[in-house]
UniProtKB/TrEMBL annotation:
It holds the Pfam family Trm112p. It comes from the Archaea. InterPro entries: Trm112-like. This is Trm112 family protein.
Amino acid sequence: MQRYDDVVLEFLRCPLCRAPLVFLGKGKLQCTRCGRVYSVGNMAL
């Protein structure tokens, strides 16, 4: 199984500040600039 810890997803951007998001695991993404955490389940990709 592949690990995605600390993988920066350049194609996914924070809706607020447009910075790249990093994958935290368990369906969570965190903005690399403002620190806001998003859940993949409720985010419109």
